Amino acid sequence: MLRGVSVLPVFLNLCAQRAVVVGGGAVALRRVRTLLAAELQVTVIAPELHPDLRTLPVQLERRPYREGDLMGARLVVVATDRPDVNAAAAAEARRVGALVNHAADATLGEVRFPATAQRAGVQVAVGTGRELPMLARAVAERVAQLLPGDAQISGWVTAREQALSLEGAGRESALQRLRDDIQAALGVPA
After folding, report:
1. Which EC class is this protein assigned (predicted)?
2. Mean pLDDT for the stretch of residues 132-147
3. Has residue 190 been placed in a domain?
């Protein structure tokens, strides 16, 4: 169990970077979908593949993982049911400078996939810092209910641009009104 693990909450732009998923089951499928949503170039290596993987725009290699498979990868997901394969792939990933997501044991990787909520260009990621993905998912679902729509966000963007065109006290006053409006819309006390 992860207790007191210090992680850096960050959004990474890995668009068009190579990701390798070692494993072909349901967990690998979920990770592949997440990677594709972030526009990574995904290769899946596994002797057995979940049928839904065949419908996705990924490179499939239906075979066991081999040393050398991870060359050029920026991110590696190890998601097999074999601890020896997961350990070998994670070790190679580190040697080639790739970040590792270890699906079976988060403490053995540098990358954790949070629960997310998205709407109108706003993305919120929720991690628990522990092995409680169902808590993170529940929080993300609750947060999703609070996210504003496109029209509201567009109005706030316009108000911010107008405020930034002002100078001095007028600028600060307009930005404060915008902050107050956003907080009120989201139910945050002033």
Report:
1. oxidoreductase
2. 91
3. no
* pTM for this prediction: 0.84
Residues 77-112 have pLDDT tens digits of 999 999 999 999 999 999 999 999 999 988 899 999
Residue by residue, DSSP assigns 88-134 as HHHHHHHHTT-EEEESS-GGG-S----EEEEETTEEEEE--SSS-HH
Residue with tokens 């997901």: 77
CA atoms within 13 A on the CB side of 82: 12
- Split into its structural domains, the chain has a count of 3
Residues near 72 by beta carbon (within 8 Å), at least 6 away in sequence: 18, 96
Determine the 3-state secondary structure of 21 from DSSP.
strand
The DSSP H or E segment spanning 61 is strand 59-61
User: In this predicted structure, what is the pLDDT of residue 2?
Assistant: 45
Torsion sign (Cα): 4, 5, 6, 10: negative
**39 and 108 within one domain:** yes
Per the structure, the complete domain to which residue 178 belongs is given by: 150-185
Q: What is the pLDDT of residue 1?
A: 43
